[in-house]
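Field: COMPLEX_INPUT
Field: COMPONENT_COUNT = two
Field: RESIDUE_TOTAL = 614
Field: MODE = joint
Values follow.
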Amino acid sequence: MAFLMPTFPSVDEQLTYLKKGSAEIIREAELRAKLEKSRATGKPLRVKLGMDPTAPDLHLGHTVVLRKLKHFQDLGHTAIFLIGDFTGMIGDPTGRSATRPPLTREQIEENAETYKAQVFKILDPQKTVIDFNRRWMGDFTSDDFVRLMAKYTVSQLLEREDFHKRFQDEKPISVHELLYPLVQGYDSVALEADVELGGTDQKFNLLVGRELQRSYGQESQVVLTTPILEGLDGVQKMSKSFGNAIGIHEPPLEMYGKIMSISDEMMWRYYELLTDVQVADIERMKRETHPMQAKKDLARRIVADFH
Amino acid sequence: MAFLMPTFPSVDEQLTYLKKGSAEIIREAELRAKLEKSRATGKPLRVKLGMDPTAPDLHLGHTVVLRKLKHFQDLGHTAIFLIGDFTGMIGDPTGRSATRPPLTREQIEENAETYKAQVFKILDPQKTVIDFNRRWMGDFTSDDFVRLMAKYTVSQLLEREDFHKRFQDEKPISVHELLYPLVQGYDSVALEADVELGGTDQKFNLLVGRELQRSYGQESQVVLTTPILEGLDGVQKMSKSFGNAIGIHEPPLEMYGKIMSISDEMMWRYYELLTDVQVADIERMKRETHPMQAKKDLARRIVADFH
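Field: COMPLEX_OUTPUT
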């Protein structure tokens, strides 16, 4: 049956492709081992990216990690886009200075639909597994909850920078917010994820998945984080509320113009994080291509992704 | 239908009977109001006492609060003895300096049976409602858990003396231990308790019930605490591990002898907490009865409760 196996590129080629535009891999040696095993057995890796259906309008900042998921998909691995319809009701406390208002079931379902349409601008709909964590969390029994919660201590969770700061500042942290990282971690157990992707701000939650898989008797997932993209100003992270974002639904000309307005420095950053152009090619362009031309190419590429 | 109503003693008589041997009532005015309403409507109060089936062998220290439940029963109110078969799997963190090992389902069921047999030495089996919190906690959905946990903050729970100390001392507190007070509180919601009894060390947990009932749209229960009984030495609290306890299963002579060994001071304390003799009668005995005779009477009374 060997002839039916998908043929993966060499492990070194895969690693080079995957490392581009990644912030941290925990741990690279483990990723290498998983890629080797996958290549030897012909079994693709299960690569998880979870998003809460909170902000239905994606901007380019959100696509950095989606593009990393696409890279795994390009290589023949299984891209799992997990919509956190259960966790969405808790609200991810990451980076928050206050408890998030919970979403209603209706908002979540509506946002989930919008999400799917948007992520398929980047991912191949035919090859993407879309899942919802309510599928397993909805069936969680009270005993399952007690068992899951017994696996972490309060201090371990309060070590998180955002929780720690809120705790020190005496800003309330609701008990249910402690559930968030545990449920996100358990999602990796339920999905038997080999790799989980997320922004650098998600590192804590992603590491919980590693721990929980171990304690549920699975091999730990590799955690691969991507940088937080700076907005048009090149200083603050891209965010609608900072007015420095490019929404993926913006009209082509609007998008094109905004990209042309960024600095040369940011242009190369966007090449790294928002295109599939490989590192060696980017280096060559830096030497050989006029920045104005490179910027036009970048703008065309990005517009083409969404229009 | 008024002629079918149970006839309750006057509210003042009831209050006097209930206040004997209680440490604190939160709040007495509310208890009075509930007693008045109960008397006016003929509807008995629902009085809850929860125990985790952890230590199946009761000693006299455990009977102080059981006797208070009996007093409500004597007055015609509904005594609800709640066996925490669900909370037993979490382990009450009260007064603990480390996480309790969870009980197995088998241990819990075995202990629950032993418990029932023992508490009926004090309570009237015909009139006592025995319930198990797995009845509602077992059906708790993941959404129910999120909603319950959203009602408290981490800081509110870490204010508890035992948690606070462990947190300060950097001794681990498992996340699931935070569930304990919330579930105990929710039990009051599920039972629609009018009054909850507990030792003074349970005050925090009992107050959570008040809060949760309010937030689930019920009138808050009254919390009535009873003192922690000192052991034979008259100094430390009665506890098997301190070797100063009288188990309710001990043979009559053994029990009698141990009671005869206590100090006169402790004798009056035991009269207050381990008998139904009323305050006025105890005061008269102090004046009129020889201490040796009073002590013999006490020993006979207590032995008669269990043999």
